[in-house]
Design brief:
The strands form two sheets. Strands 2, 4, 5, 6, 9, 10 and 11 form a seven-stranded mixed beta sheet that branches. The chain has a four-stranded antiparallel beta sheet with strand order 1-3-8-7, with no helix packed on it. By secondary structure, it is an all-beta fold. Helix content is 0%, strand content 56%.
Length: 110
Protein backbone atom coordinates (compact mmCIF):
# COMPACT_ATOMS: atom_id res chain seq x y z
CA UNK A 1 0.00 0.00 0.00
CA UNK A 2 1.27 3.45 -0.92
CA UNK A 3 -0.02 6.45 0.97
CA UNK A 4 0.14 10.06 -0.13
CA UNK A 5 -0.78 12.83 2.25
CA UNK A 6 -1.32 16.43 1.26
CA UNK A 7 -3.05 19.61 2.35
CA UNK A 8 -0.64 21.02 4.92
CA UNK A 9 0.33 24.64 5.11
CA UNK A 10 0.66 27.72 7.26
CA UNK A 11 -2.37 28.94 9.18
CA UNK A 12 -3.02 31.33 12.04
CA UNK A 13 -4.22 30.10 15.39
CA UNK A 14 -7.95 29.55 15.30
CA UNK A 15 -7.89 28.71 11.62
CA UNK A 16 -8.67 25.47 9.80
CA UNK A 17 -6.96 23.04 7.47
CA UNK A 18 -8.04 19.83 5.82
CA UNK A 19 -5.53 17.10 5.15
CA UNK A 20 -6.16 14.23 2.78
CA UNK A 21 -4.49 10.86 2.40
CA UNK A 22 -4.94 8.73 -0.70
CA UNK A 23 -4.11 5.04 -0.65
CA UNK A 24 -3.08 3.10 -3.72
CA UNK A 25 -1.73 -0.31 -4.48
CA UNK A 26 -3.05 -3.41 -2.77
CA UNK A 27 -5.89 -1.71 -0.94
CA UNK A 28 -9.34 -3.03 -0.29
CA UNK A 29 -10.43 -0.96 2.65
CA UNK A 30 -9.68 2.38 4.24
CA UNK A 31 -10.89 1.17 7.60
CA UNK A 32 -8.23 1.48 10.29
CA UNK A 33 -6.26 4.14 8.43
CA UNK A 34 -4.80 6.57 10.91
CA UNK A 35 -3.24 9.98 11.26
CA UNK A 36 -0.11 10.63 13.29
CA UNK A 37 1.89 13.79 13.83
CA UNK A 38 5.37 14.71 14.92
CA UNK A 39 6.12 18.08 16.45
CA UNK A 40 9.65 19.51 16.27
CA UNK A 41 11.87 17.72 18.76
CA UNK A 42 9.15 15.33 19.88
CA UNK A 43 8.15 11.75 19.31
CA UNK A 44 5.58 10.87 16.68
CA UNK A 45 2.13 10.58 18.25
CA UNK A 46 -1.16 9.11 17.22
CA UNK A 47 -3.89 11.60 16.31
CA UNK A 48 -6.82 9.45 15.29
CA UNK A 49 -8.12 6.46 13.36
CA UNK A 50 -10.92 6.00 10.86
CA UNK A 51 -12.87 2.92 11.99
CA UNK A 52 -15.67 3.10 9.47
CA UNK A 53 -18.51 5.38 8.36
CA UNK A 54 -19.26 7.73 11.21
CA UNK A 55 -16.90 5.96 13.58
CA UNK A 56 -13.51 7.32 14.56
CA UNK A 57 -11.17 7.45 17.51
CA UNK A 58 -9.36 10.66 18.34
CA UNK A 59 -6.64 11.66 20.76
CA UNK A 60 -8.01 13.63 23.68
CA UNK A 61 -6.24 16.89 22.85
CA UNK A 62 -7.91 17.14 19.44
CA UNK A 63 -11.41 15.94 20.30
CA UNK A 64 -13.97 18.58 19.48
CA UNK A 65 -11.59 20.26 17.03
CA UNK A 66 -10.53 17.55 14.59
CA UNK A 67 -12.66 15.11 12.65
CA UNK A 68 -11.72 12.17 10.45
CA UNK A 69 -13.74 10.94 7.53
CA UNK A 70 -13.31 8.50 4.71
CA UNK A 71 -14.21 8.04 1.07
CA UNK A 72 -14.31 4.37 0.07
CA UNK A 73 -14.69 5.20 -3.63
CA UNK A 74 -11.54 7.33 -3.60
CA UNK A 75 -9.59 5.11 -1.17
CA UNK A 76 -8.91 8.16 0.93
CA UNK A 77 -9.34 9.59 4.39
CA UNK A 78 -9.23 13.19 5.51
CA UNK A 79 -8.41 15.04 8.67
CA UNK A 80 -10.45 18.19 9.16
CA UNK A 81 -8.69 20.42 11.67
CA UNK A 82 -10.56 23.37 13.16
CA UNK A 83 -9.61 25.87 15.85
CA UNK A 84 -5.95 25.08 15.31
CA UNK A 85 -3.45 25.89 18.03
CA UNK A 86 0.30 26.49 17.84
CA UNK A 87 0.84 23.15 19.60
CA UNK A 88 -0.78 21.43 16.62
CA UNK A 89 2.26 22.35 14.55
CA UNK A 90 4.11 19.39 13.12
CA UNK A 91 4.44 16.95 10.27
CA UNK A 92 1.27 14.94 9.82
CA UNK A 93 1.50 11.38 8.52
CA UNK A 94 -1.12 8.92 7.42
CA UNK A 95 -0.68 5.29 8.25
CA UNK A 96 -2.14 1.94 7.35
CA UNK A 97 -0.62 -1.08 9.08
CA UNK A 98 3.09 -0.99 8.17
CA UNK A 99 2.74 1.68 5.46
CA UNK A 100 3.41 5.37 6.03
CA UNK A 101 2.81 8.38 3.84
CA UNK A 102 5.52 10.98 3.26
CA UNK A 103 4.07 13.50 5.69
CA UNK A 104 2.70 16.97 5.20
CA UNK A 105 3.77 19.97 7.28
CA UNK A 106 1.25 21.95 9.29
CA UNK A 107 2.42 25.20 10.86
CA UNK A 108 0.14 27.15 13.16
CA UNK A 109 1.26 30.65 14.01
CA UNK A 110 0.20 32.42 17.18
Amino acid sequence: VQLQAFGGGLVQAGGSLRLSCVASGNTWTIRDMSWYRQAPGKEREWVGTFLGPGTTELQGSVKGRFTIGGDYMENSIYLQMNNLKPEDTGVYYCNYKESWGQGTLVTVSS
